[in-house]
Every structure is written in C-alpha cells, then in structure tokens.
Here is the input.
Amino acid sequence: MPHPVEPRPRVGLFATCLVDLIRPSVGFAAAKLIEDAGCEVVVPEQTCCGQPAFNSGDRATSRALALQIMDAFQGVNYVVAPSGSCAGMLKRHVPELFEGEPELARRAAAFSDRVFELVSFLVDVRGVRSVAARFDGAVTYHDSCSGLRELGIKSQPRRLLDSVEGLTVSEMKDPDVCCGFGGTFAVKYGEISDAIVGKKVENVAASGAPTLLAGDLGCLMNMAGKLQRLGRPVKARHVAEVLAGMGAEPAIGEPEARS
Here is the structure.
C-alpha cells in the first residue's frame, strides 16, 4: 500500500561512497528527482553505510558507522539512497546490529522505517508515475541483487522508464541474475566474479540495446569495465541520470568532455 503523500517532506540524501568518489552526477540526478517529487533535499555529513565491514564480519565497525548515520539523519522525514545495496544495508541490516539492546534497537528500527532506495521512494512513497525526461534509443535494465531481493525493486524503475520520451526498454535474458560484483565478493573471488560478469555482459550485448541501466553504481562499474575490456559498444549509466534528463553525460568509464 502506498505511503500517505506528505506536503513537503524533508529528505536526507544518502549519497553513497561510490557516488561521492566516482560518479557525483548520480547524486545530482537523485536530488533533482527527489525535489521534482515535491520534497526538500538535504545532504547531511555522512560516511560509508557499513556494508563492507558488515559483510566481512566486522560488527564493531558496522555499529560505529550505523550510530554515526543515525545521528546525522535524525532530523529528516526520509533517508533516500540511489543504491539498492546501501539502502538494503541501512533498512534491513542496521537493526540487526542492535538486537538485544532495547533502546538502540528501538532507535534503529525507527531509522530503518524511514530508509528507501531512490526509485522505490519516488514510486512507492511519493506516487510518481512519470518523469519529464527524454532519452533517444533502447536501454536494457539490470536488476541489482540487493535492490531486488532485499527491497522488492523490480517494476518501479521500468514503470518510470516507460514514461521517458524516446526511450524503449529491451529486456535482456536473465535481468535478475547477479553481475558478479557483490562488493567484497569480487575482491575475494576474482575469477568467479569475472566468469559471472562475463555471462552477464553477453546477455547485455545480446539484448541489442546500446545502453545498460541499473540502480547500483558498483554493479554498473563492474559491468561497464567488462564490456569495455571485451570491446562491446554498450554504454552504462545509472537509471537516475536517465530519469532526471541527464543522459547526455559521458557514460560510466568514459572520459569527461573537455570544455
């Protein structure tokens, strides 16, 4: 059931490490989309969501990061991240860090209730059904594991992409199969990761779409790198950039245009 639409909620943008360091345009696109949905956007001082530490078994670091994040975002109605992976960590796993500690568990639960992935927030919370954007050509969409399996994000991005003028969606085979990134998985099991992403990009290329979209920058960087190494002429972009009308920016892995 959709959340009640508030007049002008205050949304804290959780920018994510990769967006901050590698692809700031995703953060600007996310802010534009949230503002267009009738919200005030603030960007509190922030750090990592804690997922790398959590997945590596370092609960002490995960807890410390979670406490910092809860402090930073305590003055907002919602916390929104342009990443299913980071949103999944904050929404599903932060409460696990404080089980058995009643006061902190209550605080973590209240925090997690306010956390949403970007496109899910637009569609499921704010009731957005279309965007004022144009993108000429076909795209294929990769369903990132965390967003799909932890947050139920599947139809929402496709619904908004259908409203983009000039865009068509060409579904690849097995769009919901992992790209092989998995954060620390790609570091620990490089050969397995490379085999998985190799199969993934073959499906991407076979879709015939010249553009690959997804909602997680880590997945996109992994697939873009493999596509480039194989000489496949497919450009990778974050879905937020296309929905915000910023599809003319250089694709992931391409050099920035010189002025």
In short: Residues 44 and 252 are 26 Å apart (CA to CA). The radius of gyration is 18 Å.
